[in-house]
Design brief:
mainly alpha; two-stranded antiparallel ribbon; 14 helices
Amino acid sequence: MLFDPIVLLFLSSGLFLGWALGANDAANVFGTAVGTKMLSWRSAAIICSLFVVLGAVISGAGTTHTLGKLGAISALPGAFMTALSAALAVFSMTRAGLPVSTSQAIVGAIVGWNFFSNNPTDSVVLTKILSTWVICPLLSGIIAIILIRLFKFFAKRISIHMVFSDAYKRIALILAGALGAYSLGANNIANVVGVFIPAQPIPPLAIGTFVFSSMQQLLLLGGFAIALGVFTYSKKVMMTVGDQLGNLSATAALIAVISHSVVLFIFASRGLEAWLSNMGLPTIPLVPVSSSQALVGAVVGISILQGLSAIRWVVLGRIIFGWIITPILACLICFMGLFFLRNVFGLVVI
């Protein structure tokens, strides 16, 4: 049953991870808008939450298969500890105000499960995922630099009254943030519920002629958990990215959000992957990438155009340190947690 207390207990770690993602990653799509005072935090949270849920439910299945290849966890207690380990790692970084990656956390936790269960970690899949941790911020930074140069080029040739210009920027920030939130839900929902999908903990739900699969119900629950995290604990991290990493104008904030949104969409779109394949072109892997890395990469790219002195290197260094330590911490927590569950409670975790 959907409301089986045991099932809900085990799913709670995934919902906690979704909450942590909302608190740390999801709000990043509007961090620059809030940091530049173009949008209030409350308005940003409402829009972000709505489109994160839509993205998770409508387009969230694509990236879950990649995590399944890295580690197929069929035992529900094992999935519980894997998600809990990632959530604890992200939450600890969130308390420090660092925009870390839930993608890195869940990958580290899955690798920890592989170590404990003596299952080999697929080096091809792991390499593919690790490469996106470098490509994602670099690509976002490059896109941001190109877009801001294009904007300046056309701005010199198009005269818009200042009042209308600010209004257009605010509207554009909202639209770009909505796209970013949708892409985030589609891309990162795999981090929240992907480890539970092989276990199929929720039976299909029939409502009239519509049947909602276990995966669809998990995607919906995960989306709601992310939205809750946005509302309850996102403000501190949002201000770190939007206000402390670099000095952004409203235009630069818009460019950063657009760049971030494009990168997340690229790594989440099954339609784009199919189109590239049909054209005989190299496909882009459907991998859950980091919203934080994409946004930070865009902010740094824009700041580079203002001069290296515009980048707050101490803040950037703290953020990069958080990116490095997060998967290691999640891996260690998962290994020790699985040992505890199996030897103290006698649960089957592999």
